[in-house]
Design goal:
seven-stranded antiparallel β-sheet, extended, mainly beta
């Protein structure tokens, strides 16, 4: 018989899970700044926007508005607003 000791087995974790962020937005969801580690970083430009509506057959469907933005420090970030909750998230790939 083979015994597998599970206490030392590494746990699986999801990759690229979205992280909650704070976003300063103007009228019509114009993104002004994205907060990372508590400090705001201004958005220089919006590269593109897109919307995802998926899994409409489930109890909690997915409805998100995405923005790919260039920040003042040169980083490119993909952020989205969950249209069901209004919360903002950063998506890493």
């Amino acid at each position: 018989m083979i015994t597998i000791q599970t206490s030392n087995t590494p746990r699986l974790r999801s990759l690229n899970r979205p992280r909650r962020i704070t976003v300063e937005a103007g009228e019509a969801d114009e993104i002004i700044a994205v907060h990372f580690s508590g400090r705001p970083i201004a958005v220089e430009s919006v590269v593109e926007t897109w919307r995802i509506d998926d899994e409409w057959w489930r109890e909690k469907a997915i409805s998100r508005q995405y923005w790919r933005v260039v920040l003042e420090d040169g980083r490119v970030a993909d952020v989205y607003r969950d249209l069901a909750t209004g919360k903002w998230w950063r998506q890493a790939y």
